[in-house]
Amino acid sequence: MQARLIDGKAIAAAVREQVATQAAGFRAQTGIIPHLAAVLVGRDPASSVYVKNKRLACDKAGLSSSLDELPAETTQTELLAVVRRLNADPGVHGILVQLPLPPQIETQAVLDAVNPIKDVDCFHPENVGRMVQGRPRFLPCTPHGVQHLLHAAGVETAGAHVVVLGRSEIVGKPMALLLMQKGPGANATVTICHSQTRNLTAVMRTADILIAAIGRAGFVTADAVKPGAVVIDVGTNRVGDKLVGDVDFAGVSQVAAAMTPVPGGVGPMTIAMLLKNTLEAARLQAKVGGHFNFSSSQS
Ligand code: GUN
C-alpha cells in the first residue's frame, strides 16, 4: 500500500482564503482590522521563523500584526508588563506569546496574564476549561488544525480509535480533548500515550488514527502502524538542516492509508487556525466593546 498524502498546504490555503474574505467583510461592516500582537523573547531561530510566518500570513489575509521583540534576559516582571500593555490596548485583538520562554520566566504565569478574550492560542485556563466543557471561546491552533485536516481529508473520527502520542499542553492534551467531544469531527475513542506507557508499539498498532506529537524524529516506524490507519505527524524536528517529523515517512507510507508530510502537513494548519482565532477575537471584542471584565490577579 502507498499512503495517500494529506496536503496540509492546500487545505490551509483554503482556510486562509476563507478568513481573508470574512475579514474583509468584517472590516467593511465595522471599520476594524483584526490585529495580532506577537511577543518573542530571545533569539531561538525556530521561534523567530514561526513568528515571521505567522505575521506574513496575517498580512496576506488582510489582518494586521505587530511584534514585541524582547531580549533573552527579559525578566518575568518585564514580560508581564508587556502583556498588560497589550491587554489594555483596544487596537490589539489577539496576543501570542511565542513558546518556549527562557528558563527564568514561569510560562504559566505569563499565559495566565493574557486577557482570555485576546487569547488566540487558547492557552489561558479559562479558555482551556471552556473547551473541556464543550463550550469553547477559541480552539487551540494545532489541535484544531489537525481536526480540520482530518475532516477535509474525509477521515471519519466518530467511533474511531485515536491514539495520541504525547501529552503536552500545546498539542497532546487538547488534541485528545477535542476529538473525544460530542459533535461533528469528534466523537472518537481516544487513548493518550506517553513516556510511561507500557507496550507502546502494541497500543499504537490499535489506532485507526495515530497522531504523533512527541518531538522525536522518526519515532513512529511501520511496525507501530496498523495497515490502513491514518497517521498525522505533528513533529517538527531539526536534523541537520532538514525539518523532519515524528514519523518515519518512508516506512510508514508503505502501511498507512493516508498520512501528512513534514513540512506541508500540520504546520500550515496551525497558522491558518491562528488567523481564524484572531478574526474571532476581533469579532468578540467588537461585540463587548470595552466591557469584558478580566479580573485575573495578574492584570
Ligand atoms: N510554540 C510552539 N507552538 C506554539 C504555538 O502554537 N503557540 C505559541 N504561542 N508558541 C508555540
Features:
299 residues; alpha/beta; Rossmann fold; 6-stranded parallel β-sheet; 3-stranded parallel β-sheet; 40% helix; globular; binds guanine
What can you tell me about this protein's structure?
- It is a single chain.
- The chain has 299 residues and is α/β, with parallel strands linked by helices.
- The protein has ten helices and eleven strands.
- Strands 1-11-8-7-5-6 form a six-stranded parallel β-sheet. It has a three-stranded parallel β-sheet with strand order 3-2-4, sandwiched between helices.
- Strand 2 (35-41), helix 2 and strand 3 (64-70) form a beta-alpha-beta unit.
- Helix 2 crosses helix 10 (266-288) and helix 6 (141-152) packs across helix 10 (266-288).
- It starts with a strand and ends in an 11-residue tail after the last helix.
- The structure holds guanine.
- Guanine (GUN) is lined by residues 96-99, 121, 141-142, 170, 270.
Give the SSE map.
Layout: E1 4-5, H1 8-30, E2 35-41, H2 45-60, E3 64-70, H3 76-88, E4 94-97, H4 107-113, H5 125-132, H6 141-152, E5 161-165, H7 172-180, E6 189-193, H8 200-204, E7 209-212, E8 230-233, E9 237-239, E10 242-244, H9 249-252, E11 258-259, H10 266-288
Parallel strand pairs: 1-11, 2-3, 2-4, 5-6, 5-7, 7-8, 8-11
Antiparallel strand pairs: 9-10
Helix pairs in contact: 1-10, 2-10, 6-7, 6-10
The structure holds guanine (GUN).
Guanine binds near residues 96, 99, 121, 141 and 270.
In short:
With 299 residues, this protein is α/β, with parallel strands linked by helices. The protein contains ten helices and eleven strands.
